[in-house]
Amino acid sequence: MQDPQDQTPGDGGDSRPRRPEQTRRRTGGRIRSEDAHEQTLLATAALLEEIGYGRLTIEGVAARAGVAKSTVYRWWKSKAALVMDAYGLAVTQRMPEPDSGDCAEDLRIFVRQLYSVVEHPTRAEALRGLMAEAQLDPEFAPRFTEWVRSRRQVVAALLARGAARGELAADLDLEHAVDLVFGPFWYRLLARHLPLDPADASAHVDRLLAGLRAS
After folding, report:
1. What are the HTH tetR-type domain coordinates in residue numbering (predicted)?
2. Overall fold of domain 88-214
3. I need a labelling partner for 167 at 20 to 30 A (CA). Which of 24, 63, 149, 215 fits?
4. Does this model's pTM top 0.85?
5. If DSSP codes are grouped into helix, strand and coil, which group holds residue 101?
C-alpha cells in the first residue's frame, strides 16, 4: 500500500506540501534530465562537425554525452530525429533573424548565411542526409517539414516588413516569394549541378527583388 505521505495531489492523496527532501530529489532529477538532454544535443552537434552525418551513430553520441543509449532513444526515435533537433538548434543560434530596417540588406544577410553551409562540408552533408531521410521515413518527414517551415517563416517575416515599409508590393504573394528565396539554395545543394557560393548571395537577392518589384 502506498504511504500517504508519498501520494501526490490528484492520485487520491492530500495536497499538503512535499517534504523538502522530496522536492529536492524530484527537482534534482529534473535538472539532471534536462542537463543530459542538452549534453546529448551538444554531443550530436560536435560529432556532426567532426565526422559527418553518415558516420554518426546513436552509440557514439551516447558515449560522447555520457548517457545511456536507451536514454537517447527515449527522447529520439531515430538518428535523423536527433540530428534534426541538434542541427535546428545550431542553425537558430548561428543565424539570428536580421532586422536592419532594410529588406534588401536583411535578405542579403540571410541568404549569405544560408549559402555559407557549403563552407562547412559536414553541415552540408547533414542537411542533404536529413532531406533524404524526410523522403524515405514517413515518421520523420513531419519533423523535417516543421523545421523547414520555421526557416521559411523567418524569410516571410523579412518580406512582410519590407512590404509594410513600402519596399515591396503590399499584395506580395509571400509563399511564392519565399519559394524564390530558397529555391536556388536547395536545388544547388541537392543537385550540385552548379556551385553554391556565398559570394553569389547579393546578386541572387538583387535579381529576386527586381523581379518581385516588377511583378
Report:
1. 34-94
2. Tetracycline Repressor; domain 2 (1.10.357)
3. 149
4. no
5. coil
